[in-house]
Write a structure and sequence with these properties.
Elements lengths: L6 E2 L9 E2 H12 L4 H4 L8 H5 L1 H5 L4 H9 L3 H7 L12 H5 L6 H14 L3 H7 L3 H10 L20 H5 L2 H7 L16 H13 L2 H8 L1 H32 L1
Antiparallel strand pairs: 1-2
Helix pairs in contact: 1-6, 5-8, 10-15, 13-15, 14-15
The structure holds iron/sulfur cluster (2 copies).
One iron/sulfur cluster binds next to helix 3 and helix 5.
């Protein structure tokens, strides 16, 4: 009889089990990350990181636990933490400033998030979904949040207090003494050349590949926006050349 691959999973759960090979592949991606050895040097299990971690105060989350899972190469535990816990970190790096081993639990979490995205984990898709509008805004305008995006529908995870910002938006914006911020669409103008350069950086660094893994539809929309902007830029360059020739 063929030997079955070793798997983990709760016998009463309806969730699919995960093959040992997959767990090893995920850990390999984490531990071979260029920053891994810089962020992890050992662990005393002292809990100083958790004691100073703001996220640990509010969520079922402990940087000490994350570091211990990685340090002891607990593959099942690492996979489990990547289903939810790693998304609780606020990336404030208080832990890194306190750890006697000079570890950076926040940095390790960042690596685990990258790997979760690379593997198209559901947790990554779910967490990043509310930010799809922000990403499209960044790609198409070079701006992040425009005032008209701050609504409780767009950011359900921000809680009901978002409506306090949302409600008197026009008045609030006018109260900010920066003329360029008095807009409901974009906060500032971004040069076309800068946008094109950003696209090149995102392509070269794999950001767009990651986007394709977690949200294929958004990736397609983003590709269309980028193609359009690139065409616009080419046309602008041609016009400049023609103007230069006319002047000569
Ligand atoms: S990561 Fe550092 S601060 Fe946290 S438990 Fe380990 S040794 Fe202590
Ligand atoms: S970086 Fe993350 S793990 Fe570290 S203290 Fe901040 S919230 Fe906690």
């Amino acid at each position: 009889m063929a030997q079955q691959a070793a798997v983990i999973g709760d016998p009463v759960s309806t969730e699919p089990v995960v093959a040992r090979e997959k767990l090893e592949e995920i850990f390999e991606d984490i531990s071979s990350h260029i920053l891994y050895d810089h962020e992890l040097h050992g662990c005393l299990n002292c809990g100083i990181c958790t004691a100073t971690c703001p996220s640990a105060q509010y969520y079922d989350y402990s940087p000490r636990e994350i570091v211990q899972l990685l340090w002891t190469e607990n593959l099942e535990g690492i996979y489990d933490a990547m289903q939810e816990k790693i998304w609780a970190c606020a990336q404030c790096y208080t832990c890194a400033a306190r750890c006697p081993f000079e570890n950076s639990p926040g940095g390790l979490v960042m690596i685990m998030r990258e790997v979760a995205i690379k593997h198209g984990m559901e947790s990554a898709k779910e967490v990043l979904r509310p930010f799809s509008r922000v990403l499209l805004k960044v790609i198409s305008t070079g701006n992040q949040l425009a005032p008209n995006m701050i609504t409780k529908e767009a950011f359900p995870d921000w809680g009901p207090n978002v409506s306090k910002v949302d409600a008197p938006l026009n008045i609030l914006r006018k109260a900010i003494p920066v003329p360029t911020m008095h807009t409901m669409d974009t906060a500032w103008e971004v040069n076309l050349k800068t946008s094109i350069e950003l696209y090149t950086i995102w392509e070269a660094t794999g950001v767009l590949d990651q986007l394709e893994t977690v949200d294929e539809n958004l990736f397609d929309v983003v590709q269309d926006v980028m193609d359009e902007k690139r065409e616009e830029y080419e046309e602008w360059l041609e016009e400049q050349e023609e103007d230069d020739e006319d002047e000569d």
